[in-house]
């Protein structure tokens, strides 16, 4: 793989994490101030984001969005990807509800390890020394950012950790499962139809006409950002990055999600960066620096 492709993959994965992190601020506003439930938010954003992606594919890029569905195996693969996205999103929300966002974010740092474990079994791809070091850096950085050095802020309830672990498993699954589909038919159809299907399944569980949300100019703006940036752009960048780098490395970049959410809160609410948060930010950035170092042929850690 060329250095430019590797850098492009890293950049796309970081962009996705930043979009998700910034979306968290808007999502929190909708959930706390506008009577949205987690299922309201997940179902509506997936349906609308899927439709927007498919419309863009057809009208903006002029691509035939129906042709990939003519192959039954491709169609089934896309539907499975949609279900994986839906379940990962819902279980993450359940983890937050059962504990807190910080605990859920820390549990999600297991995603690259789960990816590495799965790939070591299916593709005999061992975890490299570089990836192992980056996992420690990323997990430690996220831990310091979300706890601010105060370990009592974590809520290690059984339900919270369990839902967080389930979310990490499904997040790893949608990092691996659609890769071949994306290489075959492109990101647009996979993400667009996948999200649309996942959102429709959620809508069956939570019909739109039963939602009791408060629509104001602010809530419309926040929801629009959640859909366009936090869903359409974020998932497109995330799954596009899988064309250039492995699911393990993409998972390592997810650490930028809590980092970007924290930095946005600092600017939005005029907060000060403390010593522990500063140390966490440095560890997350060091994670990217280590990944960018020249590769060595003897990095593999034997499983």
Question: Can you tell me about this structure?
Answer:
The chain is 75% helix and 0% strand. The protein is mainly α. The chain has one domain (3-126, 150-247). It is globular. Residues 297-303 have low confidence and may be disordered. This is Putative membrane protein.
Topology as H/E string?
HHHHHHHHHHHHH
Strand content: under 5%
Estimate the mean pLDDT confidence: 81
When the domains are counted, the total is 1
Question: How are the SSEs placed, and which strands pair?
Answer:
Blueprint: H1 3-33, H2 38-60, H3 72-98, H4 101-107, H5 111-122, H6 129-147, H7 158-176, H8 179-185, H9 187-205, H10 217-241, H11 247-252, H12 256-269, H13 275-291
Helix pairs in contact: 1-10, 1-12, 2-3, 2-9, 2-10, 3-4, 3-7, 3-9, 4-6, 4-7, 5-7, 6-13, 8-9
Summarize the structure.
The chain has helices at 3-33, 38-60, 72-98, 101-107, 111-122, 129-147, 158-176, 179-185, 187-205, 217-241, 247-252, 256-269, 275-291. With 303 residues, it is mostly helical. One of its GO terms (cellular component) is membrane.
List keywords for this structure.
globular; transmembrane; transmembrane helix; 13 helices; mainly alpha; disordered C terminus; 303 residues
């Amino acid at each position: 793989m060329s250095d430019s492709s590797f850098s492009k993959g890293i950049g796309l994965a970081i962009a996705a994490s930043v979009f998700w992190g910034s979306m968290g601020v808007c999502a929190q506003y909708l959930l706390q101030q506008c009577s949205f439930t987690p299922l309201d938010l997940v179902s509506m954003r997936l349906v609308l984001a899927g439709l927007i992606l498919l419309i863009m594919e057809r009208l903006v890029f002029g691509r035939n969005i129906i042709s990939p569905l003519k192959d039954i195996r491709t169609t089934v693969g896309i539907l499975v990807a949609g279900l994986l996205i839906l379940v990962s999103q819902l279980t993450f929300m359940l983890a937050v509800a059962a504990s807190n966002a910080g605990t859920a974010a820390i549990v999600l740092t297991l995603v690259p390890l789960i990816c590495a474990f799965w790939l070591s079994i299916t593709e005999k791809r061992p975890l490299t020394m570089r990836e192992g070091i980056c996992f420690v850096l990323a997990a430690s950085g996220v831990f310091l950012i979300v706890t601010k050095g105060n370990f009592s802020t974590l809520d290690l309830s059984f339900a919270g950790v369990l839902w967080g672990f389930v979310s990490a498993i499904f997040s790893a699954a949608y990092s691996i499962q659609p890769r071949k589909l994306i290489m075959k038919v492109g990101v647009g159809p996979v993400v667009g139809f996948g999200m649309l299907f996942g959102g429709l399944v959620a809508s069956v569980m939570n019909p739109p006409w039963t939602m009791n949300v408060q629509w104001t100019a602010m809530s419309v703006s926040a929801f629009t950002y959640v859909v366009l940036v936090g869903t359409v752009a974020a998932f497109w960048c995330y799954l596009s990055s899988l064309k250039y780098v492995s699911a393990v490395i993409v998972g390592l970049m997810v650490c930028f999600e809590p980092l970007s959410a924290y930095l946005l809160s600092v600017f939005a609410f005029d907060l000060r960066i403390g010593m522990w948060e500063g140390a966490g930010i440095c560890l997350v950035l060091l994670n990217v620096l280590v990944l960018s170092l020249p590769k060595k042929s003897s990095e593999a850690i034997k499983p």
